[in-house]
Amino acid sequence: MRKSILVTGGTKGIGRAIVQRFAQEGFDIFTCARSEQDLLTLKAQLESDFPEIKVIAHPADLSKREEVQRFAALVRQVGLPDVMVNNTGIFLPGAIHDEPEGNFEFMMATNLFSAYYLIREFVKEMITRRSGHIFSMGSIAGLTAYPNGGSYAVSKWAMLGMTKCLREELKPHQIKVTSILPGATFTDSWAGVDLPIDRFIKAEDVAESVWGAYNLSPQTVVEELIIRPQLGDI
User: Fold this and answer.
1) pLDDT for 39 beyond 80
2) How many angstroms separate the CA atoms of 90 and 109, rounded?
3) Which positions, given as ranges, span the membrane (predicted)?
4) What superfamily would CATH give domain 4-227?
């Protein structure tokens, strides 16, 4: 029976690279993003390149709990994913003391609450099945404080804490939990920055790391995977 992966925010950057990597291995794909057109483009490309797999792609704004639940219901109609990658996220720069009103609520809802609610939609069935691997996309910003990180950094520290708690809860149920903590990765978030591309991590390298962590033997888990540019943080 073919395995499946659910990747939120799967149309761009790291999410898209993960979708591509697992599609190459014959996984069925569940994904979502805010842009319906981007999803249609991704779905057409995957179905062309990998005609043997099933691709379920639906628009959803996961900063809204009701859309998390709607997307989960659509996935559940097809099946329970073997792998989950909570990748949805947004970065809005600003300092805690003077960032625009609403930054905190919006980034916490998008970067943290989306993962919390989506995990709760599927984890009880994973426990019953006694298998699954949950990845949470954190950030170096969730390990190292820096100026102008603001609510984004707060959300990523919280994501790491949540993932650590989840790891402890799910150990006895044979469900693996991994925090992915990448540094500056060349995605749309860095568009327009006056730095050479080779100063950044490749999104494909993050995807390869996720694939490698997934493929360990059942008795072994990568709890945290820190990925940095070779020349250090930007």
Assistant:
1) yes
2) 10
3) none
4) NAD(P)-binding Rossmann-like Domain (3.40.50.720)
